[in-house]
Amino acid sequence: MSCNSCSTGKDGQPKGCKNNGTCGTDSCNKLTVFDWLSNMSLPNGEKPFDWVEVRFKNGRKHYYKNTENLTLSIGDIVATQAQFGHDVGMVTLTGELVRVQMKRKKVSENDEEILKIYRKATQKDIDIWSDYRDKEEPMKVKARQFAIDIKLQMKISDIEFQGDGSKATFYYTAEERVDFRELIKMYAREFKTRIEMKQVGFRQEASRLGGIGSCGRELCCSTWLTDFRSVSTSAARYQQLSLNPQKLAGQCGKLKCCLNYELDTYLDALKDFPKSDIKLYTEKGTAVCQKTDIFKGHMWFAYEGEWSNWHVITKDQAIEILELNKNKQKVASLEEYASELIENTKTEFENVVGQDSLTRFDSKAPNRKSKNNRRNKRKRNPQNSKKNAK
């Protein structure tokens, strides 16, 4: 879903509204909620829900009570209550769906610290808000330099000003705990505003910055993914992926979130397979599992001491051998089962254009050998060539 400003231009390039997710239609933000109850009227006597969802920079959302009974709609710029002064944000949801979202995010309506909406933002509020938004990028460059000067192991990833400019929130990432008391003093002297430091994870930083993944698409965390679940290397092992950190790590430096997408399907499929640490006892020797193919239902085994020779059998055959081993019986060898799966790997291609040759349109090159032979004969027998000329 996008507005007309995001359509393609004359030169084939996307236009873009240059509002970076703060357009009036609110169609460029990944956290947009479609209000499917907007065209439905409430029953008689029912009052509309007096809470409103307001979004700020980088997808930050809060819920405010409309105590002034303002007529608000999606896209309105409002001045909201803050801890000190007021903040400016955009209304993203109104009505009964706000109640659903608050219940989903466990926000209580009877909270003692209820934040309120003061008014619709005036032009003066919007101008002040825009001016401070323009100062954030040059401030970020200076803030990073200050952190480097005092040799702090941290990175300032983003800065967010409050709507009235009375407070600036510095978002940073760090591997370990950082003592930034001296840094806050430097920021307060330089920027002359109240400073708040907030640490974010590396995944959250990647979602803020965005980018293109190894799959060729935009990062999931910056387009639609809202919750960041932990990803472990066991997810790659269950899916039989090579444990190469360069391929498994995303732009955030952590394991890719997409490793969890198909993990449940693989775990369900592996329930029908014997465990990978099983051993098959045969008269020829003890076989150990080396590899499993979930899609084909095959398992590769190698005898102890002959690790380079693998024998492939089906999962049903492996279960059959295990049942025999439980009854203290042994099969002769795995080769008996593996011979049934040997297939002819020769590929035969069919002629999809019928009986015609693929070179039927190529011009036939003249036979150079026949021409050279004629010339040599003429040189050897000049008399014959004269008779033929007469």
Automatic annotation (TrEMBL):
The PSP1 C-terminal domain, residue ranges:
115-200
Q: Which GO terms describe its cellular component?
A: cytoplasm
Renumbered to this chain, region (Disordered) spans 357-390
Pfam families, per database record:
PSP1
Residue stretches of biased makeup (Basic residues): 366-390
Q: What is this protein called?
A: Cell fate regulator YaaT (PSP1 superfamily)
